[in-house]
Each structure stands twice: as structure tokens, then as C-alpha cells.
Queue: 4 jobs
Job 1
Amino acid sequence: MRYEAPSSLEQAVGLLAAATGDARVLAGGTDLLVQMRTDILNPELVVDIKHIPELREVKEEAGGFRIGAAVTGAELKEHPRLKSVWPGIVEAANLIGSTQIQGRATMGGNLCNGSPAADSVPALIAAGAKASVVGSHGRREIAVEDVMLAPRKLALAKGEIIASFLLPAKVKGSADAYLRFIPRTEMDIAVVGCGIALTVDANGAVSRARVALGAVAARPLLVEEAARALLGSKLEDAALNKLDAAAGAACKPIDDKRGTKEYRIKVAGVLARRAAAIAYERARKA
Amino acid sequence: MAKHHITATVNGDPVEFLCEPQETLLDALRDQLHLTGTKEGCSTGDCGACSVTVDDRLVCSCLMLGVEADGKSISTIEGMAQGDELHPLQQKFLEHAALQCGICTPGFLVAAKALLDKKPDPTETEVRYWLAGNLCRCTGYDKIVRAVLDAAAELRGA
């Protein structure tokens, strides 16, 4: 194995594009090193992207935030303003693993690891985040919900790297929330995760909503029908019932040791109700 | 493949070592620098036995490459006592019988010190969540949590 730690995106892209064998990007390494250790992966080249400035910064940009793909969960939590504007994203990123994992794990890695149960991904999708992707043909911005295609399969070409995530400008009366269900209180993988971002108008009615679910299909889902259930409502029972039903209907889960299909579908609706209530309360104060 | 020449600071001392690109920081600490206080438990980032701090950030040394340590400042369990004088956390672990077999203890101590450096007056809940990534199969955790809270109180009073 060859290890490279370039200081620019151009160099990193060049190294990955020129690789003849399996080449992997190293951000926090909390998934990559486990997969190397257990012989799931045996890369010929590992490109450490943590020496590239854009990937390690959180910057305010165009009224929103640009978060470097290699910023750690611990750094997101310590950022002075991010959590007050996008609490759901910071909470989701901070649910990943232990304190030790938080010291290294990144949202770029969480997405590019290609797990349907990645906690930060539904929160990014709900927020309307764009991934800024850099490759040998330049830079493109794609919606986070379009990055992952299936388990371990991404819509990235050879040599392409996610450099950063762009969170949209803060709109008055907007907030987000993320909830996940696991069978214990810490250190487990989501049975279901739900991210919701919404905007409340001056009368307290929902004027915009995005609902995303994780761990209930082969990829994290943006559920437009569930978002429509909230529009115009003040989260009355009728709207929450529609949200619950739409969330459940969108699920195409698997049975595994963490939960059955039926259980995941049920929990998706419950988490959607609860996340909507938290996002709504936050939005009314925002 | 050629070994990498790594220059770092470990427990305040400048060190240099040679390391294979795929070698973990844990293996580099133990095998190149002969600092065997940091333990290998699961090797997959689940148990916390290999906890160290890198530039004051708590991490699992099994989930970091040795080559990534270049230019970094690392603290391990070996840097905790000052000569013959135990750190208050170490002393309280003894007083509270917060260890039995001891394999998890260096990781717990390093993790607990990272917490108290950041937050000198944690609640019991904060201690439990902070240490959720450190597994102990002997004590049942309660004695560890008591020892950390007691050490925190002593350090605040000192």
C-alpha cells in the first residue's frame, strides 16, 4: 500500500485518477481502517485528504455554511454558530460512534462509506445540502440525496472527491431535527433514522418541509410525500397521521438482527412524528 | 514499499520512527516506540483500549495510521504519572478498585483525562456518555464512574 497526503485537491484528484489498483480516500478512517483490517478492502493507494484546507474548514458562505468533507464530528459540535442554525445536522453527526470516533469521523466519510444507515446523511438531505464534488474535469455540485445509489455504490466517477457540503442560507422561521432509533442509548447503528427540516410562516403554519429517512431502504431516502403531508399544517393530528403513513409507505427495509421490516416501517412513522415536532418547535423560535 | 520517516511529539518528547504505510498508530506506539501501555483490544474502534490523544483530541489509535501522526503531538498513558507520583485519576482508580484485569484501564484513564481537561466538573451522565466507547468486562463501570467523579472533585480542589 502507498500512502499520500497531498495539500491540494488537484493533487489528490490526480493521484486517485492515475491509480491503477484500488485507491481509497482517507478522511477520519473510522470505516476505512476497519475494512482494511478485516480484509474487506486491500487498497493499493490511500490518499489522506486532511491536509487540503477546504476539506478541514467550516465557513459561512452565501448566508449558509460550507462544511469541509473532512471536518470531524467533534469539530462540528464545537463550532460557535453551526449548531444554532442547523442543530439537526450537528446532532446527527454527533450520534456516530463514541467520543473517540467523534474525534476522527467525518460527514464526507459517513456519506462515502455508502451505508444506508449513515446518521448524518438523512440530516444533510433534509437540510437541502449540496455536495461539492471535485474531479479531473472540475467541480460540480450535486444534491446529497443523489450521491449514494445503493450500498457501497456512489454516483462519483473515478478520481472524484467530495470536497465540502454547502448548507443553504438560513431562512427565518426554519429549523431541523434528526432522530435515530437504536436498541440501546449509545454505540449502535440506526434501525431507522429520520431528518426533517421545515419553515414555519408568521401564522405558525408549515410553508416548506423536507423529510429524509435512513436505514429503511438500499439508500437514504428523500420522502416528498411525507413533506407534503406537513405543508400548510400546524402539525395537527391529521397532518401527523399523513406524515406517519407517508414515511412508512416509502420504506423498503430489510429484516436483520436490529429489526424486522414491519418494525422498521412502524418506527419510521413514529420517528417522523417526533422529529417533525422538534423541528417545528425550533422553527417557531428561529 | 519504503517506510515513512515520522517525526512527532509523544508525551512532550520529540520522537522519530520508521513506519510502514498501513501500520496503525497503535502498532507504531507499541512496536516502534515500545510504549506498550496503550492496549490492543478489538482493533476496530469499538472498545477504546487503545485510546490516546492526538493534538489533544481523543482517538482510537487502532483507527489511525502511524504515518498520520507526522508532526502531531500524542499523549499516551505513559505520560500521565509525573515520575513516581500518580495522576489523581490513577490514584482514584486504585482507591475505588476501578479495575480488575486492567486491560481497559489505560484507555479509560486517557479518555477520562481528556474529559476532565475539557470539562473539570462533569455530571455523572456526562462521564457515562463520554466513556461509552471504553468497554470494561470486569467492573460493571460503576466504580470507574465513581473514581472519575472523585478525581474531578480533587482536581478542582487542588
Note: Residues 1-48 of chain A form a domain with the Uridine Diphospho-n-acetylenolpyruvylglucosamine Reductase; domain 2 fold (CATH 3.30.43.10).
Job 2
Amino acid sequence: MTAALSLREITAADTPRVGGKTAALAELARRGVPVAPGVCLPVDVYGEFVSATGLAGRIHLELNRKRFADMRWEEIWDVALRIRNHFLRTDIPSPLRDRLAATVAGHFGDAAVIVRSSAPGEDSGGTSFAGLHESYVNVTGADSVLEHVRLVWASLWSDRALLYRRELGLDTERSAMAVLIQRLVRGERSGVAFGVHPQDADRAVVEAVHGLNQGLVDGLVAPDRWILDRATGRILEHHPAERRWWMVPSPAGTERQALPAARRRHPPLAEPDVDRVFRQVRLAEEVFGPPQDMEWTFCGDDLHILQSRPVTTAPAGGDDDNRAWYLSLTRSLENLQALRVRIETDIVPGMDAAARALADTACEGLSDGDLAAEIRRRADIHRHWKQVYWDDLIPFAHGIRLFGQYYNDVIRPADPYEFMSLLASTGLQSVRRNERLDGLAAEVRQDAQLASSLRDNAWDRLPPAYLAALDDTLREFGTPAWGLAERRALAGVVLEMAKMSGSRADIRDPAGLRTAFLAAVPPARRELAGDILDLARHSYRWRDDDNIHLGKVERELHRAVAEARHRLAGRFGERVTAWTAETVAVVLEDPAQAPPVEAPPAPDGAAAATAPHTEPRQLVGQPAGPGVATGFARRVRSAADIGRFRAGEILVCDAVDPNMTFLVPLAAAIVERRGGMLIHGAIIAREYGLPCVTGVPDAIRRIRDGDRITVDGYIGVVIVQRQR
Amino acid sequence: MNDPEIMARLRELLQDQPLAVLATRNPDGLHGSLVAFAATDDLRELVFVTNRATRKYANLQADNRVVLVMDNRTNDLRDFYNAAAVTVYGRAEEAAGPARDELERRFVARHGHLGQFAAAPTCAVFRVTVERCSLVRRFQEVTDVVMTP
């Protein structure tokens, strides 16, 4: 049986059990540095919890269902969400629970505490991973403390931690989390101190804010900043802040409030206070060796040290290391609300205007040289908007995640994706487009003449109003980047839709879930909960619609490229269709630059004919839309494949392209190589209530057209019943 | 398609595992038992030895279809994502004459301590011609390997 350790009794020898953060504070306390009293639940307690509850096995299964290298970031977020939900839904078994509750009550009674992660390895090896795990401020009472202990344990497997798992030594079999519970010091002035300036080895830095230091650490409150001579402690520079906000304790933990005017006038620290902080950070350096990065707070005139760890720079990766970009996706509600305004008033109208301007330029009359220049101009414009898409529209999708975590914390649902049901039915453009196609199909069902005209592509035999409606659909919903703009392909889709009995859009009513969610939130926080939900619904809608707007720009690029291909096809034949926009432009200017014809692959030798061959039987992906369906597979890779798709087939693709959403109402299920809950395929499958499995590695190569497959969207597997 | 990683994992199971669960059938139902086995280098044939008085021997006289299951579990939590298992579908036939001697040698090369057992006049040596294998990894990722002749 494992006991909690109080800060007073912890020594350096306990570091592997209590983590570096706790061991450092214990060491400072022993040297007489003022540290808030606390107690640590060492990693053994975590181990006892996950093994007694069977959680250890579930964590291992979640993390190992696919090779980690095969997982996209979005899938990693999904895995972290599912693991977190397991922790939320798994109570601490009673003998352990009673023991921990007695410990917490004995040490803290009803005093407010801070529940902090202290993972072994988190701040070691010269690399500091501040902020990968969670801490919770202003928690009161044993029950609530133990709830938050579980959340801190769960944060061992946060998406952020999983991304840095190699550096952290996050081994699924041996990783464990210690938790430090400390009495909350209601600091009136707080901050951080760096024993050495990150860019200047002769200087040190002190940063300070009014209120709790969470605002500074989270970047919500800008600090006053002092630069000091590292050798003497003399203040060299003071950079005052605007001092608009401070963080104060609130029923929900902490909240940012406007800083009272009286405090705005004064820096948080007088010069003697800066000196006191500087002395502590140098003392800590004497204790630990390397220069320290220290968090501290003043309560009245008493200085308390909250944390001390070696100063390090952010973990560096290679040029292809985009993890920092990924981490920047984690944004606050306020940040996302501001981003929404920008998307709706600025970015999307800008995209639409760019597409309209391009649509007004005809490419047919241009000389070859001018057409090449026009292709490059359009490619630049498209690149610009694609960058905006990455910088602003993808991060906006984080609103869905923000809500997902909030919802799961409140409801603790059996299905960790239940929250998606509250986001559906927000009038996705692709759904509205498909409803319009439904209308066109309904007319075909009533009118055999119409059907035969469509089949024959006899546009002149179609009633003018019908033809106009067909063209309107193409125009309004834009894009068809890969040639669906041709009426022919659209006519094929309408004919297929007509074979089905009626609309497939299965819009579920989320009103009941919404009411239950809001009722479960304490009244004081209902407005915030409503705001988070509202943001997430917009986030969800834009997650799909943004592609349609970007697709309009892309379509104009493709229009110019199509004209060039048309001109070059006579000379170079079919292979022009495989050339990129840039290649097409180069060849337009100088036909001698055409890429050489590729030799066909050499036929397999005789040995290969008799060698054993492998066939997929059951493929593992991520469950992305609950339900099960069996049918024939149809891979969709290009515009040509769209025309081959038959109602009731299973759509297998690399990544659902907004253009392919035409096919979704026809499909029995969706299988996609890209993984994650927030990808378009998953979102639109949810909207239509279709079984969906995403993140199936190599799906398009391993599944063949005509394979009979079963898509199990509950557990995320695809079973190949019979190879063609 | 030929996935080299799958073939390597199949080779490990067929050449490194000493034991397999053998399923045979009779008119009344099914029978499962544990047998020592050895595989040929090309993985197309397996060999096992059994006393002629056993149920599996009787069953094989009537129906030579067999299934063998091998796995590399270590009986801990890791098995659910680390262990691999293979289900082998094939036909078993008792070997006689020089063919029996050759298969017996192969079997004893793999299981030296079973030499006396394999040489006993009461024991039959069976050759299993592998038709198809189903390899399971990571709990539920399944790949079939078809042994074309």
C-alpha cells in the first residue's frame, strides 16, 4: 500500500517517484526557502489506480491500436480524448479513495489547494516541457481534489504529451504520473524569474503581474519586465506593461478580470522586491547547479516559491518538426471568438472576392505566354489563400475540441464523441448542396423523359428551368476542382440519387442533448457553457464550409490549367492530365521542356507469380461515425471515379475532398486514409448518420474496387469479406 | 500484393514457436489439441507427430482438413497489442517411407528432445500443406496470406 509523502519528508532519492517539480520544491523548502505546504501522491498511487481499475489495459489498447508513426495529429488528439474520458468515467476504488480522501482532508481540511502534475522526466535531460500536463488552481474539499487528481493523471496522456513522447520517454508500459497537492497561496503579485536571460548569458530576467501568476504563464496577462545584471543583481532596464488585467480566484478556478485602476498605476514589484526575487532564483541555482526558471508569488510581504526548474529553450526539432505549430492550435475561447469575427467579416469574403475576380477573366483568348503567366498568377493567389486556411481556418477548428473536452468533463458520456451530435445540423453547405441535388433527383424519379435526356447528356432536350437549376447548383457550391464542373458528371450523380428512395440526410435533433448539457452545468457557468457551445457550432460549420470557399479559388486556378491542358493535349496526349500547374505553364512557354514519357513498370518475374501473396482481411482505423454497413467498395481518386459510383457502394478514399461530398448521400459508408474526428469525411458522415472509419493506412491501395467490405464504425475496423 | 513485414512476422511465428493448437473435426464435432510442430523454409509445409491411438489421428483419417493456431503471447497486458497470432488452414496427410524419414528429421531438428517420441513405431508423422494463413496483430489487424502452389 502506498502512502502520500509530505513535502517535508521528500528527499532527492524520491525523485523518480515524485517527479522533478516536487523534488525541487522539497529541496528548496529544506533550505529554508518559503514554499507552500504540500503533499505528493507518488507514481505508485497512479499505478495502483490504473491497475486496480483495469485502466492500464485500456490505455495500452488505445495507444497501440495503430502504429504510432501511422497516426496523424488529429488521431493523436482523438486518442488523448478517449483516454481522458476513460479517466473521467473510472472512479477511484473505495479502499484507495478512502485513504486518499483522509490524506487530503488531514492536510488541507477545507482550504483551497492547487493540484499539480509532477511527471518524472518532465523537467529532466536538459529539456523542459512546461505546460504539457495539467494543473488545477483553487480546488476545495477532498472530493473535488480527487476529481482533479484524476484529471492530472489523465494529462499524462494528453495530445501534447503524446507528441513529445519520445523526448519524455513516455513508454506506454512504464509511464506514470505523480501529483503534488499544495495549499493555494492567494498571491497578490506574482511572476517568473529566469536566472539567465535566454539570449544573453550576462543577464537575468524578472517578470511580474498583479494577481495570480496563471495569467502570466498562460499568456493572458502581459507582465512588467526587469532585466538585471546576472553578476550583481543591478536593475538595468524596466519595461512596464499596460496592466489591463489580472487573474483572481473564482468559483470555476481562476478568471481574468479588469485590473482595478489603483493597481494599474503601480508596477507589481518595487525595486527591493525585484531584488528579493532575484536572490531566490540565484539561491536556487546554487542548490541545483544550472540557472533556474522560477515561479513565485507575493502574499502581502511574504514571498513564496511555486516552482523551480532549469532554464531551457523550447525543445527543437528538425525543419519538418511542426509540433510547435500543432501546439499553437490550443487556443482560448476569447482568442477563437475573435478569430471567428475575422473569418466571417474578412477572410471568407476575401476568398470569395478573389474567386469572383478570377472568374471574370477569360482564359480562352490569351496567348500561350499570357496563359502561362495567368496560371502562375492564379497559383500564387491560391497559395496565399491556402496559407490563410492553414494559419486561421484550421486553428479555428480547435473550437470543436474546446467544447468536446468541456462537454465530456460535464457529462462524462459513454461515447466520448457524443458532443459531436450537438454540433451537427448547423446547415453545412455540403448538406444544403446535397439537398438541392435530392430535389433534382426527385424530379427525375417522376419523369422518365427527363431521366433519358440526362442519361444521353442531351442538354437541349432538358426543360430550360431544369438545366438552369443544374447549372446553378454547380455554380453556387463552387469548386469541382477536378472537373465535376462538367454537367455530365453531375447528371450522373443525379441519376444515381434518383435510384434511391428519398433523401438520406438524417438530421438528428440535438435539442435534448443540449438541454441536458446546459442543465448539468452549475447556473453560474451556464452562460460560459452556452458561449463555448455556440463557438463550437460555428467552428464545426466552418470546418466543412471553409473548403468550399477555398475550393472556389482553386476552381479558377484549375480553369486556367484546363485551358492549357486542352491546348497541349493535341501534342502530348493523355499525359498532360498528370502534369502540375507549374509544369503546364513551363511547357506552354517552351514545349521542349515537356517531361519525358515514363517507362511502364517492368513486369514481375516468374518467381513472383508463385510467391505467397498477402491480402488484407481486417483493417484497423479510428471509429469516426457509429454504425455498421456491408457493401461493395468503390475507390474515388479522381473525377472519373465519381461517375462510376453507384448508390449503396462504400466510398473508399484517401481524403474526402469537398467535391466528393456529392457522393456521400449515395454511399452506404465511408472509409478514409486520413484519420481524426474533425476531418471532413467524419463530419459529413456524422451529419448523414453513416458508418465511417478513418485513419485506415493505405486504404486506397489495400482495398480494391468491388471488394465486399464491412465497415464497423463502432470499433473502427474494416473487414474485407471477399476480395474481388 | 506482398507485404514483406507480414511475411517476416509469419516466418517468426512458424519458425520460432514450438507449439500450436491443432483443430480437427469428426462427424460429432470438433477437437482441439496442442502439438509440437516444425515448418519448412518456404513456410508451405508444417510437420507434427502424433500417436495413432489419439482422437486427432482418428479424426484425420476421416477428414484431413486442419487448422493450426500459433502465437507469441507472453501472458501479460502487452499481449493485447504486442502479441501476434496466426491461424493456418491446410490439409494433413500421414507420410510414409523416405518422405516420413525426411519429415521426421526436420521435426527432430526443431525438437531434439522429442527424437524418441517421433521415432516410435506407434507414432505417425503428418505433413500439413498450408493453403492460407490469417495473421492477427495489434489485437484486431488481420492480414491473409495465400500460398499459391
Note: The radius of gyration of chain A is 30 Å.
Job 3
Amino acid sequence: MKGILCRLTVGLVTAGCITVPVSAQAPDGVVREPQQCRSCRIVLERETTLGADSGPNVVTSTFFVKRDSRGRLYSVFQFEPSAIVVFASDGAFLQKIGHEGAGPGEFRYILGLHVADGDTLHLFDVGNQRRTVLSPEYEVVRSHRIPPALMPDAYAFLPDGALVVNALVPTPAGAGYPLHLLTAEGDVERSFGTDDTYITPRTEYTHTVRRVAPGDSGVWAVPWTRYVLQLWSRDGTMRRQWRRSVPWFEPYEQIEPLSEEGPPAPMVAGLSVDAHGYLWVAVTVADSRWRSNLRRETGPDGPQVFPKAVERVYDTILEMIDPGTGRLIVSERLDQKISGFVDANRVFGFRLTPDGGERLDIWRLRLVSTVMH
Amino acid sequence: MPSNPTHRAILLCALLLGVASTGGRSVAAQVVEPDGKDQGCTYCLWCTVSDVPGHMLQHDYLTSSKVIGMDHACVTGVCPGPHGTCAPQGPVFGFDNAAEVEAFEVRLAVASPGDLPALLGSYGRGVTFNRERRTLQLMGCGGRIVGNIPLESEQVAHLTATD
């Protein structure tokens, strides 16, 4: 390494390290290697940590952490899925919003949170089957219906304000489709998102679940179990598809729990589009040390296998792709498990402390070039 | 036979191994009809699978898991905390067991196109032909569509002729 002269924050395209994404050229293809920016590396810098051993800062499992323009962080934890927990940018607990119920400002099971322009919050409460909009001061503004079987943190607001959700919609028109365009009232206007609509009770979850992100002319979606990036327009047509053909991600049919019999299967953990239109994909893969870092525990459903340390069972491959050309810009393997994107510049990850405590780390993404210019 | 090669292969394996046998039960027993007494299907609409205690790897919906029927809570993984989301939902009819859905797939795979109308008729409201989508749709407990099976043109032709 000669030195870091070309230091870039994500989305800040300078110094010719990478080029601005070009417009669509091919509707379908394979993501091209080698990476365009051979000198680039993705570096994570820990920005803050959420969690404590006791008190209101205690954290546990969550599907998302989001950040507003004030730097406030929002999450909903599994042990209390009816309340939004608000943290300051330094990780300090600020307040809880909401409690269990069906009235205004009450929630049952929040599976997604969107920070809109001006720090308006959209809360996807599948328990009450509604999306509640809160002002930046956390006052209820309005609510809309949503499908009851929404997938976690899986929605995209299109440029015209239309909302596309990833959900199981078990109706004659919606069954088998993963994406659903909603009307302003929250009814399903159109279902789409796959050419293969064959589902059964055993397969419908894995078949349906997607990571989604808004694109220029529609919504980007990628199944958790196949590294295939697809751009769908609101009229239900697929505008573009990029397939990633790599030995570390063979597509598979069914999500299975962690097991001693084989390495954990790869899984798309997050999808994001940055300010310049680049796609960012986080893929969880097996750490080479996975087998020796498992432990068995018997729970209410029988024996289960858990990691002793998350980061020794899973790695994350984080990639940046030009959606116009399908060119891989940069790919980085990280010795940690990333759970998803906080925003276009940040990711979050879960970890256990040596004494079993739970923490959520917020990491800032940086592109770093190692070549002298 | 399903048009998807993977599904076709799975069904052929199932046929060879007999894993989805109906076990000699009557076809009528595969579909639960409402009896007016039940409060309804109890769905736990979401559940979690953990890779770390308290840490969600994924979540799941009951009807997408191994059991479709009544009174089941979460069937895969750990369900932490109280689940305020399990509630009676809708009348009880349709397929109440995922194995029965698999049995139907096997029956469908071996049926000739001409046999389809009779096959569907034997399942009552449990299986419907969606003409617009050219699929068979399987109704789960509570009336949810839990299966969607695209058909070949010849199969569609026979069903359309008798629809």
C-alpha cells in the first residue's frame, strides 16, 4: 500500500477512482468482474454503538436501524415490537414512542420504519395492518392500510410517492408475487416481481422475501436466497436484471436454520442505492471458522444451534455495482456480520459481548483507494 | 406437471420416495370444511428464527411454514416474548396441513389433463382454477391462498372447457 490519497466517502465520486453510473444499456446480464476500481477498498468505521447491560439502552434483535437528518437513530426491538426506541447520534437513549394498542399513536408489531424528507417517520405496523405517519416531533399525522403479511423492512417509495411493498398477499390476484404496488388508501393496485409464481406453504416465504430499494424508474429487488438484482417498474415490468455468478453464492430454494451439518447458506442481508445511483449489496456468508464456533442449546422447540460469536460464524461481502452497466465497482469481504443498511452511508451489525450482552454497532461506509494518483 | 423444472424434480422425487403419500385417506379428509363451531383459524402471523438467542435471522409466517392449520403458534425457531398477534382469523376451511398440499401436488403431477376437472372437484373449495392467471390456487385455513400452481396449456384447455 502506497498510501491513502484518494479517500472517498460513499456517494462522493471524485478523483476519477470511479465513474458516475451510466444509464441503462442492457436489460439482462451478469455482473462483470474484475472490479472496476481495482485500488478501491470498502472500509467500515464504527460510528456508534447501541445497547447496554441494563436500563433503557438495552437492545436485542431487530430488523432495522434507521437514521434521520438530525442524526437520531430509530429501531424497534423484538421484545417490545410496539414501541420505537430513539437514540441520539452518540448512542444515548432519548425516548420511546408508542405503546401496544390499536388507537392513534399505538402499535402492535412494527416491521419497518422509513425516514422521509423532513424527518417524517413512516411506521409499518403489521399488527394493526396500517402505516402510521409521524411528524418530526412524533405526532400522528395520518395512517394508511397495509397488507398484513409484510416482509421486514421491505418497502420502497417511488419518486412519485407511490409505495411498493414486499409482502405475502394471499389473494387470487396477489398469491405468488413478491412485490405489490399500493394505492394511496393502501389497497393492492398491482402485484408483480417474478415470472415464477409457483408457491406452496413450504416455499412461499423463501419465494417471496426480498430486499428492496427505490430506483430511478421503479424498485430494485433481490431475493434473500439468490444474488439476482432486478429493477421493476410500477407497471409490473422488469426493466433490468443483473445476475451475480460467484462460487460463494449458489442460489437455493429454502431458508434453513443454522446447523452443524453444513455451513450457513449465503443470504442477501441488505440492499441500498446511494446518492449517485450505485447499488450496494450486503451478503452474509459463512466464515471459514463457522464449524468450531457453534454451540447447541435446547429450547422450547427442541435443540437448536447458535453461534458462540456471530463474527466467527459469519462474514459479510459488501459490493458496489453500477446498475447501468452491471459492472462491479468494488467488492470487500468483512470479518463481521452486517444486518442491514441504516441509510446510504451506514450499516448496522449485531454482536454479543464476551459476557453475553447484546450490542448494535453502527458503521459508516467509506471507499478508500490505496493507489497514488 | 409443474412447469418449473425444480418443482418438477421435487415432485418426481416425492413420487419415487412416496414421501407425500396421502396414506390412504379419503380426498375429502384433506380439506377442512367449516362446521360453524370453531372460532376460526388461529394464525400467528409472524415468528422468528434465531441464529443467536434473541437475534432474528429471519421471520416467518405460520402459513408459510410447516403447518397451516388451527391453534398453532410459531412453528419454526424461537418465538420470543408475548405474541400479541395470534388471533382467530376467518372461518376454517381449505387445506389445514402442508403435507396435504404436497399430496395434492403429487396427485396433480400424475393426473392427465383430462383428469383435472374431477381432481379439482374432489377438493371442493380447497382448490380453484384461476382462469386469468392460468393457475390452480389452493386455499388455506381461513381462506388465504397458500398455493399457486401454474398450469400447462393443455391443462388450462381442459379446465377452461369444463369451467
Note: The two ends of chain B are 20 Å apart (CA to CA).
Job 4
Amino acid sequence: MADYYNNQDLPRFGDMGKNAPELWEKFQSWYGAVFAEGALTAREKSLIALAVSHAVQCPYCIDAYTQDCLEKGSNLDQMSEAVHVASAIRGGASLVHGLQMRHAAEKLSM
Amino acid sequence: MAALIGSLQSREHELASAGEQLRVLNAPVSRHPPFDQKLAESGLHPLTATGIEVFQINVGKLCNQTCRHCHVDAGPDRKEIMTRETMELCLEALAGSDIPTVDITGGAPELNPDFRWLVTEIKKLGRHVLDRCNLSVLLLPSQRGLAEFLAENRVEVVASLPYFIAARTDAQRGAGVFDKSIEALRLLNSLGYGKPETDLALNLVYNPTGAFLPPPQEAVEADFKRELLDRHGVVFNSLYAITNLPISRFLEFLLESNNYDHYMERLIQAYNPRAAAGVMCRNMISVGWEGTLYDCDFNQMLDLPVWGDASAHIRDFSAGTFGSRRIVTGQHCYGCTAGAGSSCGGATV
């Protein structure tokens, strides 16, 4: 395999249903329901998905939700802020583990 | 997006030829099923007209702007404009019909020296007139009094404004166009356009500023109303979200940015049979600057006349004959059938 990530694979996501059609159908149905208009708008959900895409660092998801955010009417200012939210949580999540380090150090130290 | 660099024709670009555009669109790509096949699967083939509600006149390709997405390849260098003689034939055709709405487009239609005469004559026939306006034309010294003329004649203004942020609008329409557009919108508002207490309709057109589909029309209209009022004190009536069709300068952008296949796949993936049933070509006729008849302005730019007959001319027009015609379709038609649909009046479903 030449590349681990291939943008031609994104439209072939549905191939994941070939050997487990019932599971794929459940996933599709659940996924569709998650992103439908609800207590949150479809636009808000798309921005959350874009942020999470960056947190989990999925290039397929970043491509898909960049397009989806634009098609839901979000602009680059809003999308950039969403990515900063994801990044801040990732950064904060690392930093807050510093307390674990401090506890461990305290335990080990005189 | 790169800087605006003139019309395809002025650059002698191969896509200036309608034939070359059709060659690209019709290239055998297995992922792009023929549009007519999709229509057939929806029970809509062959697509036929359902009467004529809108008489659209393209009075020429001359424009003071050179927008990146222009499907007309309009610009200051384009000199093809409709003569008064051809306009008279349009008026005769209108007089012999009861088509209620006349949609005047271009280019910047106001730059045709006979524009005001044409509007005045159409109003004498008692028809509703709609002017597709790029806004900046209203500020040109040569067009003094134009906004007032439109207001006096109760002309509906349909104005292009792709976004409420300057950078995104200027990227598509040229540096400084957003500021001029806001100035022109304020001028129209000062005359009563877009105000709920008047009958002067001011509707805006949103085009995506790239290779993506427009957002839901009602959602983006709410954004525009809030942002234009808060940031600029501008009001308007409705916003029409229009999909960019993969032709002319937008096709150039798609090919140069390596977005063409992806965009076509997006349009095809979003094909909506309800949008296909309501496409605008089914209730309109489009007249080219030379008087040739087309099913829509996009077919006009691809040199696809009604019935595939280049001799179909406004002098031969009759609403009865043309109101039930078979529509000429092609791969570009996916642009009008994607998602919530797209027409000169925005979403169709």
C-alpha cells in the first residue's frame, strides 16, 4: 500500500458495509439521526463534528466536515474558532495531567 | 482564489468556446452518470416545459465587473449587446402573450444603452420587471439616476452579494466590490427598496464562493439579514441561494483548482428528484442578445438553443408553441437539481 490515507477512499466509506451489512445499516441510521436538526441545529452539529475531526485527527472527517460546514453556511472565522476549541481541549487535557505528575512527584519526594 | 484576470475570451482561453466546455462536461467519466439517465430514473425524461411564466432577456455580455464564477464570461471587454431592433421583437412577443414577468439579465444589463427604454416599454405592457443587478453599476458616473429610475418604474432588483464578509465577496467579484455593493444597497434602501412598507422589492443572490453547495436558503437568509443590518444598516426582502453551475469561468476555477471531479460528484450525489421536477427552465424562455431562444441562461452560454435549433428566434416566438417544448438538457443541469435545487429565484424545494 503506497499511502495510509487516500482521499479516493472517502466516497468508498460504504464499502465497510460489505461484510457486516446489518452493523453498517445500524451505524448509518444512527449517524443520520445524530446529525439531524434537533435541540442543536444541523449547522452547530457540523461545527462540533469539524472540531472533533481535528481532535481525533481524521483527515477524511476534516475534508468531509470542512465541506459540510461551508454547505451549512458556516464561514472560515467560525470554523477556525471551532478548531481552536478542539485544540484548547487537547492542550488543556495534556496540561491537566500535570496534576497527575505533581501527585506522583509528591509521593516520590521527601 | 487568485486575482481576477479578465474574461476567458480576452485571455483567448480554450474554455471561451462553448464547444470546449461541453467537451469537458461530456468527457466519459464512469462516475458521472448522464443527466438524462438520472431524469429517467425520476420519471422526468424527457423534460418538458409546463408553460411560460418568466420571459428572460439577456441584453448582453458587457459588464463593469469580471467575477470569478461568471457563467456568462461577462466583462468590460465583452461588446456583444442586444440592439433596440431585437428588443422590439421581444416587446412584440410579449405583447402577443400574457407572460407576467420579464427578467432582464446580462452582463450588467443596465450598461446596454437601451436598457431604460426597454424597461419603460415593458412597463407599458403592464408586466412585472426584474433587473439582475451587480450593485456596483448603480454607482458608475455614466449611470447617474439609475437607482431612481428603477424605483420610479417599480422594477424588482435582484442583486448579487455572495457573502456578508468583504474578503469572501471580493475574492469572487473583485477587490473593493463589497464596499461598493454596500454603498449601492444603502442607496437602494434610501429610495425605499427592501423596506417592508414599500412595494420596492430588493432580493439578494448568494452564490457559494467555491466548490461547495449553497447552505439551506432560509438559514443563510437569516444570517445575511442579521449581519447586514448589524454591520451596515442594510435591509432587504429575500435571499436566493443559487448553485454555481460547472460552466464558463466557474468551470475554469474548478479545473485549475483540481476540484472539477469532486464538485461534479457532489452535485450528482445531491441530485434531488423534487428539485429536478421544479427546475426553472420548465416555466421560462430565455432570449439571447442576438434574439436566439434558449431554455435558460446557462444553455444560452453553452450555445444550446431550444430544440437544438439555432434558427429558433424571438421573431418566431409564440407562448403556445414554446410553452410545452422539450427542454434541452446536459451534464451542467446537475447544478440546478442538487440539494434544495437552484433557479434564478433560488432554491426550488
Note: The domain at 14-337 of chain B is CATH 3.20.20 (TIM Barrel).
